[in-house]
């Protein structure tokens, strides 16, 4: 039977992204050629899933390949070897449109970061719950080393509060302190007189566990989430080690009970609605176990922040500008996570001018009593459109009842309301690649 047109959509965009995100550099897979989709693209069957790959090599349906993952990121690269012959042949594919050799060092650094951070990363909900508990029960849970106690209090109190985030200036400052701009801020300061001393001061503070903060280290980066996570990790690592009794099975499983399977934040990944987690430190029983768990959660949070930074790096060809980050907000004694992506929107509607590219903000949150909620705001000049998706029916109905209020608030702020709406369920994977798009490169 002859098949014409584009390759069949056998996977949803979310399934494609979940599959590709799970790959690791060096991983070996076997694939079967389904058909040559275009002169420069081939449809592959990998396990029970079909993926479209870019290559200059002409392949026949039924041929089998051994694929090795050599590069992750926005568009993974696989090295292919043709199987089924006495002398397997490497496939040579000089894929067009790839970044030139000058970008190779950057891509190599990004791949090394991904290889290290992906296995370590986890959602921050567990760490935030423990920080809240340490702040509210300071001295009652168990005595902490002074440096650890000081930085946990600072980190908690530097988090923005829900009642103040509505202020535009504070929202801007909170985004600047989300952690993804730390190195950029340090590099900018390094170009100014005394800037290099600031970077050295931060390194000194981290290395000494915060016990002897260097002058200027806190003043410039006191509110930065990544800087404070680095200080917390340094304080935990520098804390005096004490012998601890063997942990009970209950204590050892306390950390494992946390929902750590939060997908990594990679470019193209939609924001995730993350629920609050339960605090675990009170279950551990000893200071040694508490510090170990605190250090592990801090390392996971730092790895996740690094992945957000990698997802926000300057784009390549035909890739829109994008910034991905998370904002933890204090709400009473609890901390909620708002996962956000700000990006230049390349999709234009009829009548939109080329000189005024629209921008969009996509966010996800899971507040107590509301359940998972997703929102997408699109700004074109002074016209703003806002769509919500709520997984819970009562939340969807609640949002619909307040759309008129939102419209009035937009007008009061000098904005023209565009499309406003709320739907039950989850948003379509607009930011994830369609199944018929090329998602891989294969090369020698």
Helix-strand string: HEEEEEEHHHHHHHHHHEEEEEHHEE
Inertia-based shape: globular
Mean pLDDT: 76
Structural class: alpha+beta
Count every beta strand, where a strand is a DSSP E run of 2 or more residues. Answer: 13
Q: Helical segment tally?
A: 13
Helix content: 25-40%
Strand arrangement in the largest pleated sheet: 1-2-3-13-5-4
Strand content: 15-25%
Radius of gyration: 24 Å
Q: How many individual domains?
A: 3
Low-confidence parts, pLDDT < 50 over ≥5 residues?
Answer: 1-13, 86-102, 209-215, 244-260, 430-439
Sketch the major β-sheet: 6 strands, mixed, barrel
Instruction: State the separation between the terminal residues, measured CA to CA.
Output: 32 Å
Protein name: Flagellar hook-length control protein-like C-terminal domain-containing protein
Domain Flagellar hook-length control protein-like C-terminal: 350-429
Pfam families: Flg_hook (PF02120)
Region (Disordered): 254-274
Secondary-structure blueprint:
Elements: H1 13-21, E1 28-38, E2 41-46, E3 49-54, E4 64-71, E5 77-82, E6 89-90, H2 104-120, H3 125-136, H4 146-158, H5 168-176, H6 182-190, H7 195-207, H8 217-221, H9 225-238, H10 249-252, H11 287-311, E7 322-331, E8 334-344, E9 359-367, E10 371-380, E11 383-390, H12 393-401, H13 403-412, E12 416-424, E13 440-443
Parallel strand pairs: 3-13, 5-13, 11-12
Antiparallel strand pairs: 1-2, 1-4, 2-3, 4-5, 5-6, 7-8, 8-9, 9-10, 10-11
Pfam families: Flg_hook
InterPro entries: Flagellar_hook_control-like_C, FliK-like_C_sf
Domain Flagellar hook-length control protein-like C-terminal: 350-429
């Amino acid at each position: 039977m002859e098949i014409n047109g584009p390759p069949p959509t056998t996977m949803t965009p979310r399934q494609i992204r979940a599959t590709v995100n799970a790959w690791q550099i060096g991983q070996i897979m076997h694939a079967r050629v389904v058909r040559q989709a275009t002169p420069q693209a081939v449809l592959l069957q990998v396990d029970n899933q079909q993926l479209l790959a870019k290559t200059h090599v002409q392949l026949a349906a039924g041929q089998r390949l051994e694929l090795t993952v050599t590069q992750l990121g926005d568009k993974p690269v696989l090295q292919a070897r043709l199987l089924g012959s006495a002398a397997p042949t490497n496939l040579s594919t000089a894929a067009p449109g790839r970044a030139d050799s000058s970008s190779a060092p950057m891509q190599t650094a990004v791949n090394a970061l991904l290889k290290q951070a992906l296995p370590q990363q986890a959602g921050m909900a567990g760490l935030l719950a423990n920080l809240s508990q340490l702040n509210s029960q300071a001295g009652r849970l168990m005595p902490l080393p002074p440096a650890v106690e000081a930085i946990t209090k600072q980190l908690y109190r530097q988090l923005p509060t829900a009642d103040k985030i509505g202020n535009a200036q504070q929202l801007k400052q909170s985004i600047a302190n989300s952690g993804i701009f730390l190195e950029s801020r340090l590099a900018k300061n390094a170009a100014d007189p005394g800037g290099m001393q600031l970077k050295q001061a931060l390194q000194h503070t981290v290395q000494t566990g915060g016990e002897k903060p260097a002058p200027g280290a806190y003043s410039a980066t006191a509110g930065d989430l990544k800087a404070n996570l680095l200080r917390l990790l340094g304080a935990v690592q520098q804390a005096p080690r004490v012998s601890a009794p063997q942990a009970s099975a209950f204590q050892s499983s306390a950390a494992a009970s946390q929902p750590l399977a939060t997908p990594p934040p990679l470019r193209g990944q939609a924001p995730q609605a993350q629920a609050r987690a339960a605090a675990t430190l009170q279950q551990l029983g000893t200071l040694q176990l508490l510090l170990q768990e605190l250090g592990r959660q801090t390392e996971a949070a730092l790895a996740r922040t690094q992945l957000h930074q990698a997802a926000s790096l300057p784009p390549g060809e035909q890739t829109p500008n994008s910034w991905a980050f998370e904002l933890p907000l204090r709400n009473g004694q609890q901390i909620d996570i708002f996962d956000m992506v700000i990006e230049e929107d390349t999709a234009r509607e009829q009548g939109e001018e080329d000189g005024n590219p629209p921008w969009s903000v996509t966010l996800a949150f899971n507040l107590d009593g509301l359940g998972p909620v997703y929102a997408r705001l699109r700004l074109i000049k002074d016209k703003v459109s806002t769509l919500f998706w709520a997984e819970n029916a009562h939340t969807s109905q609640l949002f619909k009842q307040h759309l008129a209020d939102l419209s009035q608030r937009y007008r009061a702020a000098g904005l023209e309301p565009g499309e406003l709406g709320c739907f039950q369920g989850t948003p379509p994977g607009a930011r994830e690649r369609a199944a018929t798009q090329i998602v891989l490169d294969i090369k020698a």
